[in-house]
Amino acid sequence: MEVKPKVAFVCVHNSCRSQMAEALGKYYASDIFESYSAGTDIGSGIDKDAVRLIKEIYGIDMEKTQHPKTIDELPKIDVKISMGCDASCPHVQAEMIEDWGLEDPTGRGDEFFRIVIDEIDQRVRDLRESLKFELEAGSRPLGVQ
What we know:
The chain is α/β, with parallel strands linked by helices. It has one domain: Response regulator (Rossmann fold), CATH 3.40.50.2300. The protein contains four helices and four strands, in the order βαβααββα. Strand 1, helix 1 (17-29) and strand 2 form a beta-alpha-beta unit. The model has no long low-confidence stretch (mean pLDDT 90).
């Protein structure tokens, strides 16, 4: 059985961008990688606008399958994706680290939320293709045995 790389989408609160990225990672790429999200200062739930818009656009109910998690709840991670939380971003050990530098859409209205969702959508699909290429090329991506 082939082990899939584990990707963690991290942000301080694990309530909005990282949760949307986890949902879209599962939606687009569960055949290529496992998606997780986490933070260091988690809130009580997922941002209501994020929940509503992801459900409206993709039919995914994040509240049924996800909840805010701390970084110590993560398995060993191969790829860490920071959402754009600057110096306060949680530290997670990984072989590949990216910072997507996304602005937090919380409280900024549906139009801005949709812009951020579109960016996450594209980046998740790009990450899927990149990791798929590595797997098909026969390389052992990101320390996966």
